[in-house]
Every structure is written in C-alpha cells, then in structure tokens.
Write a structure and sequence with these properties.
mainly beta, four-stranded antiparallel β-sheet, single chain
C-alpha cells in the first residue's frame, strides 16, 4: 500500500486547507487511516483518525471542531479538512494506514513505528 499526501501549502491564520491522501497498490477501504504531524523540534503527534468504512472518526482535542477526516473509498482516498488554522498547526503532515484503528487513534502517545504504511508527508505552514 503506497500513500501520497497532497494539498498542503502556506495559508494565513484563520484559513483552510484540505489534505488528501491517495492510495495505490491495495484497497485503502480495508484500512483505518490516521493523520499525524510533526513540527520542528517536536515529537510526532496524532491529529485525526477514521475507520475503514468512514463511520467512525475522531480528532485530538487541540483540533477538535476545526479538523475533520473523511474518505472516499471508491476513489481510494482519505481527506483531512482543516479549518480555522492557527500558527501552531504548522507542521509536516503525514497519513498512515493500518488494519488497527486503535493504533491510529492514540492521540496522546507517539504513533507506533510499525504502522502498516506511511505517506512521505506534506508541509503545512500557517502564517500569523
């Protein structure tokens, strides 16, 4: 399963971006997907997760109400809609897939190093 993120960039505070995670090589609908980010000098943190069917989704407290995960399984894609962006959201964002949704939704812990597949990441920069 190969994942590629897109949709990042530079945005002013209060703006919105929509990240996409496109899969190839396997059926993304067989996996839960998590979104993670790493800011310079900081640990990787979980941001949002979504189950294989899309019926369950959750986000970490710092982005709850602003970030939402969704998916389009026929298109083998997952999305992260980010609204009301803040400078502290600046980071490199990654999507990752795994059969275990539990492993993707543990927001207060470093993500497992052995998640099934990771994208290469994409930069999101929010200016004040």
């Amino acid at each position: 399963l190969h994942l590629v993120e897109s949709g990042g960039g530079l945005v002013q505070a209060g703006g919105s971006l929509r990240l996409s995670c496109a899969a190839s090589g396997d059926t993304l609908g067989d996996y839960g997907v998590g979104w993670f980010r790493q800011a310079p000098g900081k640990n990787t943190e979980g941001v949002s997760c979504i189950g294989a069917s899309g019926q369950y989704a959750d986000s970490t407290d710092s982005v709850k109400g602003r970030f939402t995960s969704s998916r389009d399984n026929p298109k083998n894609m997952v999305f992260l809609q980010m609204n009301d962006l803040k400078p502290e959201d600046t980071a490199k964002y990654y999507c990752a897939a795994d059969p275990s949704l539990f492993r993707l939704c543990r927001f207060n812990q470093e993500p497992p190093a052995d998640l099934y597949s990771w994208g290469q990441g994409i930069q999101v920069t929010v200016s004040s």
